[in-house]
Design goal:
Number of strands: 12
Order of helices and strands: EHEHEEHEHEHEHEHHEHEEHE
Oligomer: single chain
Shape: flat
Strand content: 15-25%
Distance between the termini: 52 Å
CATH topology of the largest domain: Cobalt-precorrin-4 Transmethylase, domain 1
CATH superfamily of the largest domain: 4-hydroxy-3-methylbut-2-enyl diphosphate reductase, catalytic domain
Largest sheet: 5 strands, parallel
Radius of gyration: 21 Å
Structural class: alpha/beta
Low-confidence stretches: none
Length: 313
C-alpha cells in the first residue's frame, strides 16, 4: 500500500432530483397515513435506502395482491405499465405515483407516438422495471401497434419490424450515453425514416454523473462507484470507468471494500450512482482513511439545481 492516497470525489454524484422526490413521497406518506405504507417494487434501487425506509414502516411488494384492499400503494420511481395502474384501480387501492418526471416524459412520448400510428423501438435492458413500465404503455385496444426492445447493436441486425416507415424510438433514461448513441446511429442507418423523441431521453443526472466519471478517469488509478447491484445508472458508471482503462469496482457498503484494491494506488476516484446516498460515500471514505493515510479533494462539477415537486399525497 502506498504511503499516502489521494481521494478524489467526483461531482455531481449521488442522489438526483427524481430519487430525492421518490424517497420524500414515501416518507411523507408514512407521516400522513401511518405505517405500513405499501410500495410496489423498490422505490429506488439502493439497499441502504430500502432498509432505511423499511425501518420507518414501508413494505415493499411486487404483487398488488399483497396490498390490502383500499390501502395506499406507492408506485416506484421507475414507472409502471398501464395494466398495473388498472389493476390497482380494480383492487380499489389508493395510488401515490413516485414515477420520476423524466420517466413520465418518456411515457408521454410513447403514447404520442402510438397515437400517431407509430411502432416503437425501445433501447433498454430487458427485465428492468423502467423498461417494463414503458413497454407497458401499449393498451389492449392498441393490438395493431408494436413495441420492440433492443439492448445492443447486435440486436439491430436481427431486428425485423412490420412497418419500417412508421417507426420511432425511445430509450431507458439510465443508459450509457456513448453506447446509446452508437445504437441509435445504427438504427438510423437500418431505418432511415425512424423518428426520435424531441429531446434526449437519457436523464440529466445520468449524463452529468457519466461526464464526471470521464473527467476523473484520467486522474485516477482506481475508481470506486457507490451503488447497489440492481442500479442501472450505477452499473453504467463502473462500466464507463473500466472502458476508460481504469481499475473500477462498484460497492454499496464500506464492508465490501477490499484493502487489496488500495495496494500501490495513489489517486482513488469515488463517485456514486443517482440512487446512492451520500452517507454511503462517507462511510467508504472513512474505511479507506482507516486503512491508510489519505487526503480528500472535492472536484468541481456541474451544479444541479433541478427540483421536482411532490405530487398530492
Amino acid at each position: 500500500m502506498t504511503d499516502k492516497i489521494n481521494i478524489l470525489l467526483a461531482n455531481p454524484r449521488g442522489f438526483c432530483a427524481g430519487v430525492d422526490r421518490a424517497i420524500q413521497i414515501v416518507e411523507e406518506a408514512l407521516i400522513q397515513y401511518g405505517k405500513p405504507i405499501y410500495v410496489r417494487h423498490e422505490v429506488v434501487h439502493n439497499q441502504y435506502v430500502i432498509n432505511d425506509l423499511k425501518t420507518k414502516g414501508a413494505v415493499f411488494i411486487e404483487d398488488l395482491n399483497d396490498v390490502p384492499k383500499g390501502a395506499h400503494v406507492i408506485f416506484s420511481a421507475h414507472g409502471i405499465s398501464k395494466a398495473i395502474r388498472e389493476e390497482a384501480k380494480l383492487r380499489e387501492l389508493i395510488p401515490i405515483d413516485a414515477t420520476c418526471p423524466l420517466v413520465t416524459k418518456v411515457h408521454v412520448e410513447v403514447n404520442k407516438m402510438l397515437n400517431q400510428g407509430m411502432d416503437i423501438v425501445m433501447v433498454g435492458h430487458k427485465g428492468h422495471p423502467e423498461v417494463e413500465g414503458t413497454m407497458g404503455q401499449i393498451e389492449k385496444h392498441q393490438s395493431n401497434r408494436k413495441m420492440y426492445l433492443i439492448e445492443t447493436v447486435e440486436d439491430i441486425k436481427s431486428l425485423i419490424v412490420d412497418r419500417p416507415d412508421k417507426l420511432a424510438y425511445v430509450t431507458q433514461t439510465t443508459l450509457s450515453i456513448d453506447d446509446t448513441k452508437i445504437i441509435i446511429d445504427t438504427l438510423k442507418i437500418k431505418y432511415p425514416n425512424i423518428q426520435g423523441p424531441k429531446s434526449d431521453d437519457i436523464c440529466y443526472a445520468t449524463q452529468n454523473r457519466q461526464d464526471a466519471v470521464k473527467q476523473i478517469s484520467g486522474l485516477c488509478d482506481l475508481i470506486i462507484i457507490v451503488g447497489s447491484n440492481n442500479s442501472s445508472n450505477s452499473n453504467r458508471l463502473k462500466e464507463l470507468a473500466l472502458r476508460e482503462g481504469v481499475e473500477s469496482y462498484m460497492i454499496d457498503h464500506e464492508d465490501l471494500l477490499q484493502s487489496s484494491w488500495l495496494i500501490n494506488k495513489k489517486n482513488i476516484g469515488i463517485s456514486a450512482g443517482a440512487s446512492a446516498p451520500e452517507i454511503s460515500v462517507k462511510n467508504i471514505v472513512n474505511k479507506i482513511e482507516s486503512l491508510t493515510k489519505a487526503s480528500i479533494t472535492e472536484l468541481p462539477g456541474i451544479e444541479e439545481s433541478i427540483i421536482f415537486k411532490l405530487p398530492k399525497i
